[in-house]
Amino acid sequence: DGGITQSPKYLFRKEGQNVTLSCEQNLNHDAMYWYRQDPGQGLRLIYYSQIVNDFQKGDIAEGYSVSREKKESFPLTVTSAQKNPTAFYLCASSPRTGESPIYFGEGSWLTVV
Amino acid sequence: RKEVEQDPGPFNVPEGATVAFNCTYSNSASQSFFWYRQDCRKEPKLLMSVYSSGNEDGRFTAQLNRASQYISLLIRDSKLSDSATYLCVVEYGNKLVFGAGTILRVKS
């Protein structure tokens, strides 16, 4: 089946630890994105990538890092510098940025304990 | 002005009712518009794109008003399964900006 796979679905992190969220797509899409959603709020863009080996900061990139070494993969690292990391993280992809709709993975729930 | 604004609701309607949501956007150069649906604790899913001439998909009708910079979603004959949060999405250059969503609750 074609789609976007995120893992893990649930993750608990101790304060001061870095964690990496995985995102893989087999839709042959050029563009990939990471969004964050807090309870009762809208989605906020963390990072996006239009092509392999290239990515841009979104609206809330501080405390996060990404890489795009393969077209299929766009992992997100939540570093210890992120002050309030507890949230729902959504990875998405699209054929290209801007004009086409984007398609989401099932999301990863990160909780800091 | 926010890039994309929606009435958060909730809109509480009986089954069979017609309900409409509006969404305003600030960038007059935006060219692409979408409505997504998000169920509780799930990922957003594309409901429909919004075309300049307006478009319909079954019970759902989307319209665009460029002059007033808003898009709308009309749901006819509401079903219990339509209960969800509806997200308005607008293209801003290389990215899509999501509204905070409108909550719809359909009751029997």
Would you write up a description of this structure?
The complex is a heterodimer of chains A (113) and B (108). Chain A has 113 residues and is mainly β. In chain A, strand 4 and strand 5 form a beta hairpin. The mean pLDDT of chain A is 93. Chain B is 0% helix and 56% strand. Chain B has no helices and eleven strands. In chain B, strand 9 and strand 10 form a beta hairpin. The radius of gyration of chain B is 13 Å and the shape is globular. The mean pLDDT of chain B is 95.
For the structure shown, list the relevant keywords.
heterodimer, A: 113 residues, mainly beta, seven-stranded mixed β-sheet, four-stranded antiparallel β-sheet, 11 strands, globular, B: 108 residues, six-stranded mixed β-sheet
State the order of secondary-structure elements of chain A, H for helix, E for strand. EEEEEEEEEEE
Assembly classification: heterodimer
- Count of runs of 4 or more consecutive helical residues of chain B: 0
- According to DSSP, the number of beta strands of chain B is 11
Structural class of chain B: mainly beta
Structural class of chain A: mainly beta
The number of distinct helices of chain A, counting runs of at least 4 residues, comes to 0
Rg of chain B from C-alpha positions? 13 Å
- Care to count the β-strands of chain A? 11
Low-confidence stretches of chain B: none
Greatest interface: A-B, 23 and 23 residues
Q: What order do the helices and strands of chain B follow?
A: EEEEEEEEEEE
> What share of residues are in beta strands of chain A?
over 45%
Helix content of chain B: under 10%
Sketch the major β-sheet of chain B: 6 strands, mixed
Q: What is the CA-CA span between the terminal residues of chain B?
A: 37 Å
* Alpha carbon gap, first and last residue of chain A: 35 Å
What value does the average pLDDT of chain A take? 93
